[in-house]
Design a protein that fits this description.
It is a single chain. By secondary structure, this protein is an all-alpha fold. The protein has a domain at 49-86. The chain has 4 helices and no strands. The longest helix is centred in the middle third of the chain and has 15 residues, at 28-42. It is elongated and about 60 Å long.
């Protein structure tokens, strides 16, 4: 495996971090805020129902389907029904 080519700033940052020359400036209050944000980000407390034809479902369930990704990432959680065209 080959090493990635680093620019001057990246090389300096890597050297400093490997020498334990970096210290966290994260305050306890900011850490708590970040932890709460992460908890809320990954909380799955909503449910939606989707009516879809079996043909469309078969299409979006194919491996590496861009449609499945679109549904997961682009439609808001507030959607309660949608229609997908083939």
């Amino acid at each position: 495996m080959s090493k990635a080519k680093l620019d001057k700033n990246e090389a300096r940052l890597l050297k400093t971090s490997e020498a334990d020359g970096l210290e966290s400036v994260l305050t306890p209050a900011r850490k708590k805020q970040a932890q709460e944000a992460a908890t809320h980000t990954f909380k799955k407390d909503k449910q939606i129902n989707i009516r879809i034809s079996s043909r469309d479902l078969d299409t979006i369930q194919k491996p590496h389907s861009w449609r499945a990704s679109l549904i997961k990432h682009e439609y808001p959680a507030s959607c309660t029904s949608m229609h997908l065209g083939a």
